[in-house]
Amino acid sequence: MNAPINVLIAESDPKKLKKYASLSLWKELGFSVIKTVSNTRDALCAIAENSCSLLITVSRPPEVDARAILKARGDAAAIVIVPRKEGESVGRYFALGACDVIAEPPSRTRLRQALMKAHRIVSRGTSSDEYRRAAEKALASLNVTSESFALKLRDFIAKSEGETATTGSAAEFFSFNRDYFGKLFKQETGMTFNSFYNGFRIEYAKELLSAGGLRVREISEVLGFSSVDHFTALFRRHTGVTPSKYRTDAPK
C-alpha cells in the first residue's frame, strides 16, 4: 500500500481551516494533512522543510498570499481556492504552476476532481496514463481537415484534465466566440464538440474502469456528470453495456 501524500493547508480563517483539515476526502483519496498554517510566513517556512507534496492555499491577502506561496512551492503540486470575485484573474495562479484553481466555497465533487488531478501529478509527475490514452483514442477517431486545429484541440484536452470542458470553454481557448467555434468544429470534424467530448469521456471512463481503484459513482464525478444515472445511460449508449458490466468483463 502506498504511503499517503503529505498536505499543507494555508487558510487565515480558523473555522474554515479546521473544516478543510477535517475533510474525509483526504483519507479516501490517499492524502494526509500534516501541517496547517494561517499566514504566508508560516507557509513559506513549512515549504522550506520540504515535507509536503501538495499545497492547498486559500487566497486571502495579505494574510495568505497565494502567489508568494506558489513561487516558493518547488516541486510540490498546488491547488488554490479563491473567492468568486477573483474569477477573472485566476490565470495568474496557473501561470505560477497551480495544478487547479477552485472558486470558494468548493463543492465536494469539485474538490475531489482537483485532488485526484493533484494525486496523479504527484504520483507520476504528469497527466494520468488513463487520461492520456483516452485523449489519444478520441483524437485519433477524428478526421480533422486542419493540422493546426487538431494540434490546438490536443492542447485543449491536455490542459482540461480535472475539469469539465464545454463548447464555451473550448471556444475561449481557441479565442473564438461560442457560436463561431461550434460551426468551425462541425466543419473541421463532422461532429459537434459535445459529441466529441462525450465520446472522449466514455473512453476515459473505460480506462478508469479497467484500471480499478474508483467506484462507478466516483468515476461519474471525475468525468463531471450531473448524476451517476446520466453517466450510466450515456456509457451504455456508447458501449452497449453498463459501467459495472464493462469493468467485470475488462481483461485483468
From TrEMBL:
SMART domains (UniProt xref): HTH_ARAC (SM00342)
Pfam families in the cross-refs: HTH_18
Keywords, sorted A to Z: DNA-binding, Transcription, Transcription regulation
Domain HTH araC/xylS-type: 151-249
The keyword Lipoprotein is annotated on this UniProt entry: no
Top-rank lineage group of the source organism: Bacteria
GO MF entries: DNA-binding transcription factor activity; sequence-specific DNA binding
Record flagged with keyword Transcription: yes
Regions crossing the membrane: none
Protein name: Transcriptional regulator, AraC family
The organism of origin for this protein: Ruminococcus albus 8
